[in-house]
Design brief:
The protein is built from 17 helices and 13 strands. The chain is of the alpha/beta class and 434 residues long. One of its GO terms (biological process) is pyrimidine nucleoside metabolic process.
Length: 434
């Protein structure tokens, strides 16, 4: 086999075999296929795409390129949750404990922030002492004994994806559905769960800007799961506004704890209950409607909050964060108000710019080497549809001495649109692909 022939075949619209895809992916990971030929291969896929079978093969080959987690020793049906990334998306911090409190084991590996979206691991690490790097033995023991553990991804999990994604990022081949779906689902397959609830974000703060694009990605990912004998549901959710009120690591942990106490924002609470119910449904606890009642009961009783406390304590964090989060979390004391320049209604928010503004304060990364400031972030006071008066605060900026407040404020001004008439309300849940 020669890379040239495989590239030519895909360039001309041909269907690749399992062995041809494996030859290219394995060869690239081993250094036998050079960057320039892999880049040409990715560009051929970008323009000619892959069918369902090719996607499933690519995902499997990438998943098998490194370590795989075997969760079979953990009793019960293991359901993972994945979000395609959004602003203010701290759902794992609420959904995981809710689901675990209902007896479904949560053995989760999560990622870090990059670009305008936050990372679950960075948020958890804002809790003093919380460890996201556990030994395999400790990881399994925590899931077996308390039902939940959330850790960072292992270094050798799907090395093919790490290497190929870096090349896609440098060659303008990131936004192709087969490549996106294989990247996400290869990590899910390697994680060892029995099924997946996929939160596919849509809108200005998401990678998928339109419902059509998001539905195509959701269908591709659910198809890959089905091809590998896994259960999957994709929930398409609105990211034209930040999720909840808080953006930034400690602030989002604070909001997650308040939500587990039953005092969370309506949109964030609704999404957490929805995703948790789908996880319970895939685990066999009943119909979706029955599972909604189960997770609502867990939230109301406080059992989800108690499960969060147990996880924090087991992973070395300060459990007092549950009772006095404002005292324990490192939240910046200096607060700058961002005020409305006109009266009217918030007609739109460019949510990606909210995420980028948070980064300029120090809450995110523009490169993988950047250090995160867990204390900074943005509190959204006015969201789409809210009425505002000139001079009234739209948002609060929690800042440190290193924050670029000028640039963050500039982005906030560009993000908000204020008009004389209110916009038509948009639903939070846009579609479900099963």
């Amino acid at each position: 086999m020669r890379p040239y022939d495989i590239i030519l075949k895909k360039r001309n619209g041909g269907k690749l075999s399992y062995d041809e895809i494996k030859f290219m992916v394995d060869g690239y990971v081993k250094g036998e296929v050079p960057d320039y030929q892999m880049a040409a291969f990715l560009m051929a896929i970008y323009f000619r795409h892959m069918d369902e079978e090719e996607r499933a093969w690519l995902t499997e080959i990438m998943a098998n390129s490194g370590d795989k987690i075997d969760l079979s020793s953990i009793p019960g049906v293991k359901i993972d949750k994945h979000s395609t990334g959004g602003v203010g998306d701290k759902t794992t911090l609420v959904v995981g404990p809710l689901v675990a409190s209902l007896g479904i084991p949560v053995a989760k590996m999560s990622g870090r922030a990059l670009g305008h979206t936050g990372g679950t691991i960075d948020k958890l690490e804002s809790i003093p002492g919380f460890r996201t790097a556990l030994s395999e033995e400790e990881f399994f023991r925590n899931v077996k004994e308390i039902g939940i553990a959330i850790v960072g991804q292992t270094a050798n999990l799907v090395p093919a994806d790490k290497k190929i994604y870096a090349l896609r990022d440098a060659t303008a081949t990131v936004d192709e559905v087969s490549l996106i779906a294989a990247s996400i689902m290869s990590k899910k397959l390697a994680g060892g769960a029995d099924g997946y609830v996929l939160d596919v974000k849509v809108g200005s703060g998401a990678f998928m800007k339109t419902l059509e694009e998001a539905r195509e990605l959701a269908t591709a990912m659910v198809g890959i799961a089905k091809a590998h004998g896994k259960k999957a549901v994709a929930v398409l959710t609105n990211m034209n506004v930040p999720l909840g009120r808080m953006v930034g690591n400690s602030l989002e942990v604070l909001e997650a704890i308040e939500t587990l106490k039953g005092r969370g924002p309506q949109d964030f609470t609704e999404l957490c209950l929805n995703l948790a119910a789908w996880m319970c449904h895939l685990a066999g606890l009943g119909s979706f409607e029955e599972c909604i009642k189960l997770v609502e009961g867990s939230l109301k009783s406080g059992s989800g909050l108690e499960k969060f406390r147990q996880m924090v304590e087991r992973q070395g964090g300060d459990p007092r964060v549950v009772d006095k989060p404002e005292d324990i979390l490192p939240i910046a004391r200096e607060v700058v108000e961002f005020r409305a320049w006109a009266s009217g209604y918030v007609r739109a928010i460019d949510t990606e710019k909210i995420g980028l503004a948070s980064n300029y304060l120090g809450a995110g990364r523009r490169t993988k080497e950047d250090t995160i400031d867990h204390s900074v972030g943005i509190e959204i006071l006015k969201k789409v549809g809210d009425q505002v008066q000139e001079g009234e605060p739209l948002a609060l900026l929690y800042v440190s001495s290193k924050s670029d407040v000028t640039q963050a404020t500039k982005l906030l001004k560009e993000s908000y649109t204020i008009s004389e008439t209110p916009p038509e309300p948009e639903p939070l849940i846009l579609d479900v692909v099963r």
